[in-house]
Amino acid sequence: MIENYELELARLAMDIAAQEGAQKCRVCLSKSVSDIFSTLDGEIDKVSHCMDRGLSLTLFVDGRFGTFSTNQLDEASLRDFVRKAVNMTRILATDQLRDLPDPARCCTKAGSGDELGLYDPAYAKVSADQRSAMALQAAVTGRIPDTPAYKLISEEGEYSDSEFDAVTLDSGGLFCRHKETSFEYGVEVTVEAPDGSKYSGFWWESSPRLDGLRTDEVGRKAVARAAAQIGSQPFPGGKYTMVVDTDVASRLVTPVLNALGGYSLQQGNSFMNGTLGQQVFGESVTIIDDCHIAGQSGSRLFDSEGVATAPGPVIENGVVKEYFINTYISRKMEIAPTIEDCTRAHLLPFGGVSDREAILRKCGEGILVTGFNGGNCNSATGDFSYGIEGFRFENGKIVSPVSGMLITGNFRELWKNLIAAGDDARPCMAKLIPTLAFTNVDFNG
Amino acid sequence: MVSNLMLRDGEVSSGGLTVDYGCGVRVLEGEKTGYAYSESTDMRSLLEAARAAGAIAGKDSFASLGMTKKGLEMTNKLSSRPSNRGPRQLQIGGVKQASGEIPNFYPMQRDWRTCNPADFVEGLHKLESLIRAKDSRVAKVIALLGYSVSEILMYNSLDELTSDLRPMASLSVQVVYQSKGSVQTKSASRSFRMGVEFFTDELINEVATEATAGIDAMFEARRPAGGQMSVVMGAGASGILLHEAMGHAFEADFNRKGQSIFAGKIGQQICRKGINIVDDGTLPFFRGSCNFDDEGVPGQKTYMVTDGVLTSYLHDRISANYYGVAPTGNGRRESFRYNPIPRMRSTYMENGADGTVEDLIKMAGNGIYVDEFANGEVKIGEGDFTFYVKSGFLIEDGRLTMPVKDINIIGNGPQALSDIVAVAGDLKVDPGRWTCGKGQSAPVSCGIPSVLINNLTVGGGQ
């Protein structure tokens, strides 16, 4: 997708930067195309065609640092842009801790961009007619009969596919490329109950390969999820076992990963400060960075600095094994650099249960959370409070829908109470977090 | 053009510049939309985008144009540069306008594109010094000055040609406080559609004062017992609840599709008499203001609720055509990469006649007072919302007592609107850096006078 003349533009940007006085620089050139076919109530409603190409530039000039980007890539515009960027960098304060990463840590195995098998050549053969047909075939309006319990008010479907190609180069000789394709179908429905109340449901599937996309059940799942919420109401507050569906479980992992990030740690704004090597969570908790799974979106061979990613433990049996430390933060905190961020978090199974139903049976009774609605985590303390919706379950079976409730607690305490983790994480999601179960969670509503 | 300077660890040692250029083409076939864009405005790229967008019409409607006379006319129009003088209506119905001048809600005294970024470094240092001087518990300060200028030129098949120049400036600060092993963070921001004249000593003082206000209460705050209770929302930033929990449900696309809880309720009483809710694109210098929306419709003020009655949705041209009304100037988009959709601008409730905030606190008797929310989410169909309380106090016996933290308020938008029992006369439109996300981001403003709402659920400890 990125053509040779565009690679030369990226190299030209580095040359201009050097001519203007930059001692070091990094360039990332990215290009993407996507097509979106949206349906409304079973008919094509919107068609979008998107083409993007941009160049970002990281400059190191006389001990100073700046980041810049442009999408005007003709040579004259590029020369003007790089000149302005170098001049703007010169007005900043010196920061001798800024530098390119050690070349020994950088990725050398991403030359073609398709080493992880994320690029499907079939993308080039998909026609507009096929896209339209896939969007229409997946729609369920008129194919799902209304029931006495509800009628379908609205269905918004969206088929999309895209092609992405990015190259990162630096003045130290780095050359890394990442290419991938994506094929997605998602749908949001609104159903109306006999009393006029409305409920919405959403479902989606995606795959980096066209033949991996399954759209046939997406609409029905969205309708089922909306209809299941009919009549939902708060359940009396108290401490309950909480089961969190795999679709939304990453909401409870993201704050922990953010708190392990270098910028939060360095600014003293992290509830995971001082935990490296410490037993912070229960032994049930193991999260690895599973960044090299071939054929799964989210896998990457390098981070934004070009540093090579490597699979490994982030939390192992409750012990913190890794902070996410880039070159700059490493120098600021005087600790060894790792990687900029967790590439693809994967929480490993625990408790001998495979999926949601098995976990509900194991737990007996409690509240199953299938959606979060608002809330917050205090990044400095780990105190959290989130709105939730889901279902009350008893004897291992769902008995009634629940909404308008909150969970409150502290993440360091919550993760001590993980009693089960399934093996049902969806490969299409950015993080591989399965269905989870926690004891003694405060619910109120 | 977007630029920023950041102060961190006592130094302004990072900054950046972004240049973004392109043209979007939208084709309408009834209510159906075809959209494509190009990052180049040569005729070949424009026609390619037009053909892709024209596919919605069911035929290759633009392919037959080629480089016809019409195409050349379009090229000539698009190659004219947007005016640097502010908004201009250059052509209406194919007729060129003599001056084309229309009201400018955000004139720049000094253009950011002519400034030297070095001039702003001292101001960021001053902001940090002021903050540190006001509170000895300050551990870290991160301050960010961001500014941008967008040049917009719009042409449509009604032969309307409009031009706009949209500045935006923001000053934000995040402060980490440490005391006796406890850590708290506080943020403050100001953002306006202004030129370089935005960055004054007065503004820096304002931000420093806000970033250091209420810190004692933050350290003392506790999570209160939850339950159903009366809630007094303070004037200003509480307006985000009005935006999220009610405003989105007034957007006409959600209503046209039958998804909104307010669908089919135009003309109905939805809250107490005397309540007026407005979406306003004409407030001078506010983030939500638009000389033109992104469909070329002039900026205007729209009453959604008048005396408690739902009187209008927020329309783009598509929904206006569907409902048979005039567009309200709410067709907005993030950039040329997105098609316009109904979006809010500056959304607020007008003043009521129920006294002051102190009067409302007395009327509540017991409950909670909130003056700052964050991280709100709303489900448009159900109307259910949850908002995190950043700053608030318990109300006991008609007065403020214990500061509270780590709680949420949950409720249903239309129900909460109908449960408003008192509105004070202290309307404030918040000057902070609010950005609305609806698949694409858009700068907005929000505001509200102090209001008393009965029967909201406050989620706290057991």
Describe the structure.
The complex is a heterodimer of chains A (445) and B (462). With 445 residues, chain A is an alpha+beta fold. Chain A folds into two domains: 4-228, PmbA/TldD fold, CATH 3.30.2290; 238-444, no CATH class. Chain A has nine helices and 16 strands. In chain A, helix 1 (4-20) runs parallel beside helix 2 (75-90). In chain B, helix 3 (121-134) packs parallel to helix 4. By secondary structure, chain B is of the alpha+beta class. In chain B, strand 12 and strand 13 (309-310) form a beta hairpin. Mean pLDDT of chain B is 89; it is low at 60-68. The longest helix of chain B has 14 residues, at 121-134. Chain B has two domains: 2-17 and 107-220, PmbA/TldD superfamily (PmbA/TldD fold, 2-Layer Sandwich); 227-289 and 300-315 and 333-459, no CATH class. At the A-B interface, strand 2, strand 3, helix 2, strand 4 and strand 6 of A face strand 2, strand 4, helix 1, strand 7 and strand 9 of B.
Helix content of chain B: 10-25%
| Multimeric state | heterodimer
- The N- to C-terminal Cα distance of chain B equals 51 Å
Largest sheet, spatial ordering of strands of chain A: 3-2-1-4-5-6
Largest interface: A-B, 73 and 76 residues
